[in-house]
Amino acid sequence: MKVAVSATGQGTEALVDPRFGRCPYFVIYDTDSGSYYAVPNPAQAAGGGAGIQAAQTIVAQGVSAVITGNLGPNAFQVLAAAGIKCYVGAGGTVQEAIEAFRQGKLSLASSATAPPHAGGGWGGGRGGCGGGGQGRGRW
């Protein structure tokens, strides 16, 4: 069985990247032979639609399952439509995640586990843009 793991690097010692759509690499691991290869994620720096692009990349690899930290709704929808099972909550190294998968320790997702645009890092916090703060009255 071929599984894809969202990863920070290209090997089994790389850490699992919890952001499916924005991870730098996917490590494609064959659980039967123990062989693997890395696929760069073309959606890592995408302005929008990263989850969909990343999921399409995975579908093209012919995998049966995905192992990641979290999945947004668009990525989940693409993967589910392709019949790819999604396992979430993975951490540690890619090798540790594969082992957890083999031992049945990962959660099979039945829906998205992250909101849309969760991994973008676009700074959606309360940064000072906009008005209405104290001390802005007339002198």
UniProtKB/TrEMBL annotation:
It comes from the Bacteria. Residues 116-139 are annotated as: Disordered. Residues 13-102 form the Dinitrogenase iron-molybdenum cofactor biosynthesis domain. Residues 118-139 have a biased composition (Gly residues). This is Dinitrogenase iron-molybdenum cofactor biosynthesis protein. It comes from Ammonifex degensii (strain DSM 10501 / KC4).
